[in-house]
């Protein structure tokens, strides 16, 4: 730390991955942190999550027990054509630690959440369930929950997700999440089912992230929990399954098999092995211009200010980066308002770039067969700025994966005032 930290009472609204990461980072700096969440129980969605180096370095540093967590390590990112399974390109991750300074893990989301919760509580964070915030006083600051309890603090961090109660109040603008037109199927298949089929076994024994790209759809698969499960996320054009009121619906094996009956044999086999699954509406928000309330006592963090679509696997990672930078800003600046404005100034350009590029990949990965697709496939194999995949180019991959959000210097792979290093328009 550059100087002694001014200890503060901090209230975090939201016990998701971003909120818990922030609570852990700030509690270990000497702040007194309380986390409240509306959930009756903490149970993250049953699906996998990728933990890239820009977040794994921070979680390991803060004492989250990733080493003993059941996981896989991604060796590469393998893009394939939908109809015949032919390779478009492979992005190697073999030397990920040597290149970027931290591993690239593939884990179960519930395991990561449980690990963060345990580390936070071990550090002294107080976490309360069944506390739904209905009202804020940003000048006090305080948050009032549905039972009438008023929670006061020196600083409130709203880490309450894409449907944030705090965000429209803080920005002064009503907002409605943008429907992307896509839904995500979240699927888990027992690893033994794949190992029993010679055509599928390599997906477990040679762990990597596999992405089949097709018209209006792409499928991402990777092993988790030491290969005990194979995680699949299907991002597909919505067929009207969800509504503004209902964001999550149940899917079934028959509809999945019918939708992918013309895809390559491995995809068809994975569909047949799939049991019931959930389909999630995919929404994001326009890029915000403000994360900090004018009172200088309340800020946004994670999906509440930059909800990420799953196409770059950076949603949780960017929330962890937020937590790291906020920690350093509070340590460096004794004045709370100054610290929060510095946090916003540093984080907003970087996360907004990732958010915008994530949205672009919805189109890039879903191009229909034809000349545009052929040009895309050719460019995807290039280690050059022309590569449409954001981290398909080594310079951009370094900017993303080698970033250390606890370093506030204006150099290297970290933040540079007014710019995003190594990122160019496409």
From TrEMBL:
Belongs to the paxM FAD-dependent monooxygenase family. It comes from Amorphotheca resinae ATCC 22711. This is FAD-binding domain-containing protein. It comes from the Eukaryota. InterPro entries: FAD-bd (IPR002938), FAD-dep_Monooxygenase_BioMet (IPR050493), FAD/NAD-bd_sf (IPR036188). Keywords: FAD, Flavoprotein, Monooxygenase, Oxidoreductase. It holds the Pfam family FAD_binding_3. Residues 9-170, 295-354 form the FAD-binding domain. Gene3D superfamilies: FAD/NAD(P)-binding domain. GO terms for molecular function: FAD binding; monooxygenase activity. SUPFAM superfamilies: FAD-linked reductases, C-terminal domain, FAD/NAD(P)-binding domain.
């Amino acid at each position: 730390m550059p100087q002694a930290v001014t200890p503060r009472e901090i209230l975090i609204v939201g016990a998701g991955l971003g909120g818990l990461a922030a609570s852990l980072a700030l509690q270990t700096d000497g702040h007194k942190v309380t986390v409240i969440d509306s959930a009756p129980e903490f149970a993250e969605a049953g699906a996998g999550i990728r933990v890239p180096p820009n977040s794994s370095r921070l979680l390991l540093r803060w004492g989250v027990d990733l080493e003993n967590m059941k996981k896989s390590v991604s060796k590469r990112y393998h893009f394939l054509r939908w109809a015949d399974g032919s390779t478009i390109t492979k992005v190697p991750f073999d030397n990920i630690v040597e290149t970027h300074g931290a591993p690239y893990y593939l884990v179960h989301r519930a395991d990561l959440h449980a690990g963060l919760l345990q580390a936070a509580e071990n550090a002294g964070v107080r976490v309360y369930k069944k506390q739904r915030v209905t009202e804020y006083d940003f000048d006090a600051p305080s948050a009032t929950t549905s039972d009438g309890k008023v929670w006061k603090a020196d600083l409130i961090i709203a880490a309450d997700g894409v449907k944030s109660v705090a965000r429209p109040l803080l920005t002064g603008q009503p907002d409605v999440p943008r429907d992307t037109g896509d839904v995500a199927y979240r699927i888990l298949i027992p690893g033994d089912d794949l190992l029993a089929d010679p055509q599928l076994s390599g997906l477990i024994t040679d762990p990597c992230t596999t992405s089949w790209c097709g018209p209006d759809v792409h499928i991402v698969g990777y092993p988790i929990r030491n290969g005990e499960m194979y995680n699949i996320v299907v991002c597909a054009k919505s067929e009207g399954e969800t509504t503004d009121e209902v964001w999550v619906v149940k899917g079934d094996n028959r509809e999945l098999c019918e939708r992918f009956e013309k895809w390559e044999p491995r995809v068809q086999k994975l569909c047949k092995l799939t049991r019931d699954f959930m389909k999630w509406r995919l929404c994001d928000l326009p890029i915000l211009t403000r994360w900090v309330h004018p009172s200088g006592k309340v800020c946004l963090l994670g999906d509440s200010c930059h909800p990420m679509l799953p196409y770059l696997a950076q949603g949780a990672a960017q929330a962890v980066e937020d937590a790291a930078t906020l920690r350093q800003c509070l340590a460096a600046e004794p004045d709370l308002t100054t610290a929060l404005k510095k946090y916003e100034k540093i984080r907003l350009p970087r996360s907004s770039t990732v958010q915008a590029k994530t949205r672009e990949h919805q189109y890039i990965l879903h191009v229909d067969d034809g000349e545009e697709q052929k040009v895309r496939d050719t460019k995807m194999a290039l280690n050059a700025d022309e590569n449409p995949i954001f981290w398909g180019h080594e310079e951009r991959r370094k900017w993303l994966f080698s970033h250390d959000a606890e370093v506030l210097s204006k150099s290297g792979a970290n933040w540079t005032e007014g710019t995003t290093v190594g990122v160019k328009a496409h």
